[in-house]
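User: I'll paste a sequence; please echo it back and then give the predicted structure.

Assistant: Echoing your sequence first, then the prediction.
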Amino acid sequence: MKGRRVYSEQRQPSSAWYIAWLRPAVIALAIAMLLFLGYRFFEEYLSIPVTIILLAIILTYLLRPLVERMVRLTATRYAPVARVFAVLILYGLIGWGVYRIGAVTVTTLQNDVTQLQNTWTQKREQIPGQYKRLSDWYNNTLPNWVKQPINDVVGKEIKATVPGVLPKIMGAARKAFEWAGLLIELIFVPLVAFYLLTDASRVREQVMTFIPVRYRESVVHYAGGMDGILRQYVIGQLLLCVIAWVVVTAALLMMGIPGALLLGIVAGLSRAIPVIGPLIGGVPVLAAVLIDNPWPGALWWVLAGYILLHLLESKVLMPRILGDQLGIHPVLIIISLLLGYELLGLLGMFIAPPAVAMIRFTLQERRKEAESAADEPEPPAELIAITTPDTPA
């Protein structure tokens, strides 16, 4: 009996594994809750201010090279005043250009929309006949034991979808009002960019006052690297968007596709989204070509041209324009795009890749600092004994 009791005591499960895993589990749960609360707080209160600041930074990067060139034409002592006048002149030119381009674009877009509507009207007349042929084939060909489950499923889906249409419409209307409010707040974008362009040094000095002195040198070093990444990315993406817009618009105009300008703008803007942007912009272009069909096989020619343009951009132009600053695997870019869209929508998809590149740059710099610290020789023991003060026994 005693031997059995000892054996049973030895076979009792230990709770050491439970104690060992309890603390990491609690820490992980606490971190997850903090991240969730931080995300909710950001989504509720900080998403619009962050969007405004990011747009102002992007505008600053686009205008800074022009401002610096205009300032270099003046004497050094007049540089602050020249900087202000340069920004005001650029703002005036941008406003005038937006007005002139908008006037031409609105008229052209109206004509494009009218052409697309006429094309759709002509094609729409063919839809009832196609629907009747499909319906006759469905009713006369398929047996009842196949049609009955299909009819049940379709009816069930319609009953489940129709009650949710009105809430979705109300949600879309609410989103439209939110975007209208955001358009009003966009007036702060050129205002913030104005101060970043004209008084960047004082802004930098005041920001540095919030950082402890011992960290300022490191912050300046990391901020300089991140500044180079974001500046090169913004200017490079702008050039790629312009190239895509010009090429797609010119090709569609030569083909006589209605809505060429509108489709070219969509292709150019969607190009700003890395990896999946060309796919998003290519869908309406291919749909327009498929609807109009200027000649047999036009869709395949356009598809081949779009693929060739994408390969040219991704393999030739992008490495030359953006350089190796990003150097991120496409899988990581796609994950960052999903996260960026959840946080800031389309703007988040635009800034997600450079944000990942900045994180990568920070980790690389930290690794270099750790390696350099490990390579430094340790001071001799005699020096340590001399520099260490004596402590009373």
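The chain has 14 helices and no strands. The first helix runs from residue 2 to 11.
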